[in-house]
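seq as requested:
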Amino acid sequence: MLLRTTASQKRVFIWNSVGSAIYAISSFLLLIIVVRVCGVDEGGIFSIGYAIAQLMLTIGVFEATTYFATDAEDRFTYAQYLGFKLVTCGLMIVASVVYITSFGYDAHKTLVAYALCAYRLFEALSQYWFAAFQKENRLDIGGFSTTWRSGISIVVFASALVLTKDIVLSMLLSSASEAVWICCYDIPRLRRIRRVGKPDFSLKPLASLFAACFPLFISSFLAIYLGNVCKYAIDAVGTAEMQTIFNVLFMPSFVINLFVNFFIRPSLTHMAELWLKREVRAFMKTIVKLLGAVVGVTLFVVVGCIIVGIPILEAFYGIDLEGCLPALLILLFGGGFLSASVVFFNAMVIIRAQNGVLVGYVLGIVIAQLIATPFVVAAGVMGASVAYAISCAGLLLCFVLVFAWSARVRMKKWGSWS
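struct tokens:
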């Protein structure tokens, strides 16, 4: 029996919001569980392992999710996107082994990083079905799937960790739960909407997809690396406890990204259609509205954290954060800058100006690499927070300039627009 091809906007909003919320706070919840069950030092090991896994996730995703969902001209088939996804996930496995080995960690730290990469591997795989549901205007199904898949994996991890005190085993069991969900829900659900067939590994479309998504992948990879630079600096010259504190303070910035995604994700397909129809004014108005949402959400979260942020984090994690409010607020503003840059990132994907985003990320990383380690040495967690915020501000400024130039060039080629 086929599923209906449309869903109410209310249903889409609810399930996309819930799914985005669960996904965004999953790392927040996992770190709480680890710190509470295994202690602060294990929390630091988990944090750097998770940072590495997030970087490897970009290889598995290869930024094909947004490209697939906004492929309004149906340049590639669903089977070709699936073949591409399986190839990039294979590359993720190889890259994870090479990258983690290069750090020369001890056995325990290495195994934690491997287990976390396995966990993120299934997240990368699931993005194929999420993009397919979004392209079919059934973002509600994608949100529903994300909600239950993420929720179940967190419960499995927490239950296993409480019983075994073994992070590696618990994370592997959590990964297995994600694999089961994909097989039992995502795959049969998509079959009821569209016939996909077997993965298509034809070289020409694979090469074309790699060429189309490579600038986006590099940008995404650099974006995560930008967020990790300060964590790597702490890993090199700080302590495991400092790493845990920085990551705890870093978590509320995800709230900004969470709420911003409530507005961005449902807008992508519509924005792609507006650009395809050359309705530029409506396209630009949507961008302005999204930026307004970023500003509003950032200010709301900042005010909330000024009032109750530190006490809530201390209650959740059970650690002392006295004197950390300034660092927390700086990280929040950095998160606001980053969320605004995500708006322009998606806009550049839609107008197919992928190469332009590389400039911003390279600039941000250069800034971060230059200042992160000396700032951490000089001021610890506060120094890392300032370095992160400065890097994100540089990224946003560059994105604004590159997007304005790219859009202007394309509109000049059209000659006129609505």
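The CA atoms of residues 228 and 395 lie 15 Å apart.
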